[in-house]
C-alpha cells in the first residue's frame, strides 16, 4: 500500500555499468557513409523536434530507410526482486539492439508491428497497450512489461530516444486502428471534431484548466495514507461476488449462496446481519439459486432487483427482493411487443434514485437496446405480484432499439438522469435524460473496449474502464453564446478537449497478478448538487488503485511533464490483498468524518470484505 510509481524511476546510471560507448561504435546499425552523414543531420533535427514536426521527421526517416527496420544499439535492463526490499534493476544486455518489425505477412496479420529487442531476441512483443510503456525522457529511457517481466530500454542519445518514441507511437496507432498514422488516417479514425484526440500534443488544455479552477481549490491536496478499519469474513462455503452499497443503514454482500446484510458505519462495513438466501424461485419452483450478476437497490433501499446471467451473460428478467422480509416477491420478465427479450445490464434512473421511496422504474441495456423499464402496467398502476405463478411483465416505458450494431457494453446515469454508454468498439455516447434515440455526443474509441463506465453527479466528468487503462473525459464546453454546458445537454462540436489516461506503471502491471485487467473504475459517491467527487478507484488483480481526482485534473501535475501523446497519470495509492479483488468502491459521502476527507473505501475479495479510511496526516 502506498505511492507506487517511484519504484521504477530509479536512475539507472552507475559508474560500473554506464561506460561511455567506444568512439568507433555506431549507435545505429551499420549503414553506408552517405546515409550515415544524413543520419547525423537527422539527429540534429530530432534534438530540436516539436510534436508538429514529427510528420516531417518521419518522412525523412522513411527516405533513409531507417524507420522500423533498422536496429539501434541501446542498453537493456531487467527488474528483479518484485516489490521486495532487494528489488533492483540489473543490466541484462550492454549492447542490445531494438527494431519495430512488420509481421503483417505472418500468421497473425491483425497485429502488424512487434517490438523486438536482441540479441536473442530478449523481447518480442506486439506494440499495444499491454506493454504499459512508460517514457522517462530525463534518462532517455522507456520502461515496459513483456513476457511476465519488467524491462527498461535506455537509448544512447536523446535523438535516438526521440526516434524510438516517434516510431513507437506510429506503430501503436497502426496496430490499434489498422490505418496509417497520417493526417488522413487520424481524420478517418477521430473525425474533424476530435482534433485534440488525434494530436493531443497540439491541443489546448484550457478546458481542463477552467474546469479545475471552477470546481476545485487552487492547491492540490496530497494523497493521504490508507488505514484499515474493519474486516469481515465471508461465511462458510461462501464466495463473495460483488457489493451493493447502501447510503442509509445497510449495505449488501452478494455471495455464491445468498445476499449478506452488513451495517454501515463511518469507519466502513461491519457486523453481519440477516442473510437473504434464495434457494428457489417464487411460487415453489425448483430452479436453483444463481449468483446474481447485478444487485440493484431501489425504493429507499427497501427493495432489491437481482439480475442473474443466462446465456452469454444476458438475462431474461430480474428477481424482486423485499429486503425487510428477505423474500423474493416477484420474478419480472423483460418483454417488448409481446416478445421476450434479454438485457445485458440494469442501472438506477439517476445517481440518487435508490434513495427515492416511490421509485418504480430503472434503466436497461443490451447490445443494441437502451431503455427504461417500469414495474407499473401501462395504465400507471403497480402490477399485482401476489401468489400468481406467472411472472409479471415489465413495461417498456421509454427507449430505442438500434438497427445497426452499437455493441453497447455498460452504462451509468448522472444526478439528473442523463445516461452515458460504453461500447465494445471503445466509443462512449452521451444521452440526455429526455431522449434515448440519438446521442448528443459520441466520443471515439481509443482501440480498447469499454468494460465499465461511470460519471460524476453533475455530468461533467466521465470515467471509462478498459483492460489496461482508465480514460477520463471532460464533457464541459461553451456554446456559441458563451454559456457553459455539458455534452449531455448539447452537441460539443469541435470544442472537445483531449482525454487523460490513468495507468499502472509497468512494474505494478506485473505485480498486480495474473488477472491484471482493470475493472469497475468509478468515482467516489456523491448524490447532491454542489458536491464534488474527490477520488477515483479501480480494481486490477490483487490491487485496489486510488487516484486523487483533483491531482489528475491538474495540468501542471508532475506526471504530465515531457509526455508525448495523451497525458497519462501514474500517481496513485495501492491497496494490496493476498488474492484477486472482486470489487472496490467508496461508501456514500454521508459517511465522511472530520478525521478523513473521504468516505471509507470498501474492498472485497472472494473471502473477505475490508474497509479503509483515508487518514489525515498527523
Automatic annotation (TrEMBL):
Residues 1-43 are annotated as: Disordered. Transmembrane segments: none annotated. Signal peptide: none annotated. Residues 1-10 have a biased composition (Basic and acidic residues). Residues 48-191 form the DUF7135 domain. It comes from the Eukaryota. Residues 242-561 form the Vacuolar import/degradation Vid27 C-terminal domain. Pfam families: DUF7135, VID27. InterPro entries: CYPRO4_DUF7135, Vid27, VID27_C, WD40/YVTN_repeat-like_dom_sf. Residues 14-25 have a biased composition (Acidic residues). This is Vacuolar import/degradation Vid27 C-terminal domain-containing protein. It comes from Urochloa decumbens.
Amino acid at each position: 500500500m502506498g505511492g507506487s510509481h517511484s519504484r521504477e524511476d530509479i536512475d539507472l546510471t552507475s559508474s560500473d555499468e554506464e561506460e561511455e560507448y567506444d568512439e568507433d561504435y555506431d549507435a545505429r546499425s551499420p549503414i553506408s557513409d552517405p546515409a550515415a552523414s544524413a543520419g547525423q543531420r537527422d539527429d540534429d533535427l530530432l534534438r530540436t523536434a516539436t510534436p508538429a514536426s514529427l510528420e516531417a521527421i518521419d518522412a525523412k526517416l522513411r527516405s533513409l530507410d531507417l524507420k522500423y527496420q533498422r536496429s539501434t544499439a541501446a542498453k537493456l535492463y531487467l527488474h528483479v526482486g518484485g516489490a521486495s526490499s532487494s528489488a533492483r534493476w540489473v543490466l541484462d544486455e550492454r549492447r542490445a539492439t531494438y527494431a519495430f518489425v512488420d509481421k503483417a505477412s505472418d500468421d497473425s496479420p491483425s497485429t502488424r508491428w512487434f517490438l523486438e529487442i536482441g540479441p536473442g531476441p530478449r523481447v518480442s512483443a506486439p506494440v499495444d497497450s499491454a506493454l504499459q510503456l512508460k517514457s522517462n525522457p530525463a534518462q532517455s529511457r522507456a520502461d515496459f512489461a513483456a513476457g511476465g517481466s519488467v524491462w527498461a530500454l535506455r537509448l544512447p542519445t536523446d535523438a535516438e530516444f526521440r526516434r524510438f518514441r516517434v516510431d513507437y507511437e506510429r506503430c501503436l496507432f497502426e496496430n490499434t486502428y489498422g490505418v496509417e498514422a497520417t493526417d488522413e488516417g487520424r481524420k478517418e479514425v477521430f473525425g474533424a471534431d476530435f482534433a485534440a484526440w488525434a494530436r493531443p500534443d497540439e491541443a489546448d488544455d484550457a478546458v481542463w484548466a477552467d474546469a479545475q479552477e471552477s470546481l476545485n481549490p487552487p492547491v492540490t491536496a496530497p494523497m493521504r495514507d490508507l488505514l484499515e478499519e474493519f474486516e469481515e469474513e465471508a461465511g462458510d462455503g461462501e464466495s463473495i461476488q460483488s457489493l451493493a452499497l447502501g447510503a442509509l443503514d445497510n449495505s449488501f454482500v452478494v455471495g455464491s449462496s445468498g445476499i449478506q446484510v452488513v451495517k454501515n458505519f463511518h469507519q466502513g462495513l461491519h457486523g453481519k446481519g440477516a442473510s437473504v438466501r434464495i434457494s428457489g424461485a417464487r411460487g415453489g419452483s425448483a430452479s436453483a439459486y444463481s449468483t446474481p450478476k447485478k444487485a440493484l437497490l431501489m425504493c429507499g433501499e427497501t427493495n432489491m432487483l437481482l439480475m442473474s446471467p443466462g446465456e452469454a451473460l444476458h438475462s431474461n428478467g430480474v428477481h424482486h427482493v423485499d429486503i425487510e422480509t428477505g423474500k423474493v416477491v416477484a420474478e419480472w420478465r423483460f418483454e417488448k411487443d409481446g416478445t421476450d427479450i434479454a438485457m445485458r445490464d440494469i442501472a438506477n434512473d439517476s445517481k440518487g434514485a435508490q434513495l427515492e421511496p416511490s421509485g418504480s422504474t430503472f434503466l436497461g441495456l443490451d447490445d443494441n437496446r437502451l431503455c427504461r423499464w417500469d414495474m407499473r402496467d401501462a395504465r400507471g398502476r403497480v402490477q399485482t405480484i401476489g401468489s400468481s405463478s406467472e411472472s409479471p411483465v415489465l413495461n417498456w416505458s421509454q427507449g430505442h432499439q438500434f438497427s445497426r450494431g452499437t455493441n453497447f457494453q455498460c452504462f451509468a446515469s448522472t444526478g439528473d438522469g442523463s445516461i452515458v454508454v460504453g461500447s465494445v468498439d471503445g466509443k462512449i455516447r452521451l444521452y440526455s435524460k429526455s431522449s434515448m434515440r440519438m446521442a448528443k455526443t459520441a466520443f471515439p474509441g481509443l482501440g480498447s473496449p469499454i468494460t465499465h463506465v461511470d460519471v460524476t453527479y453533475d455530468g461533467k466528468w466521465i470515467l471509462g474502464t478498459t483492460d489496461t487503462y482508465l480514460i477520463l473525459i471532460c464533457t464541459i464546453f461553451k456554446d456559441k453564446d458563451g454559456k457553459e454546458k455539458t455534452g449531455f445537454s448539447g452537441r460539443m462540436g469541435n470544442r472537445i478537449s483531449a482525454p487523460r489516461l490513468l495507468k499502472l506503471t509497468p512494474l505494478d502491471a506485473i505485480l498486480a497478478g495474473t488477472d491484471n485487467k482493470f475493472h469497475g473504475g468509478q468515482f467516489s459517491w456523491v448524490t447532491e448538487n454542489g458536491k464534488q467527487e474527490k477520488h477515483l478507484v479501480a480494481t486490477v488483480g490483487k490491487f485496489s488503485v486510488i487516484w486523487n481526482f483533483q491531482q489528475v485534473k491538474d495540468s501542471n501535475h508532475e506526471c504530465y511533464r515531457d509526455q508525448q501523446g495523451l497525458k497519462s497519470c501514474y500517481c496513485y495509492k495501492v491497496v494490496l490483498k493476498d488474492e484477486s479483488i472482486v470489487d472496490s468502491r467508496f461508501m456514500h459521502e454521508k459517511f465522511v468524518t472530520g478525521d478523513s476527507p473521504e468516505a471509507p473505501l470498501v474492498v472485497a475479495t472472494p473471502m473477505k470484505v475490508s474497509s479503509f479510511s483515508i487518514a489525515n496526516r498527523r
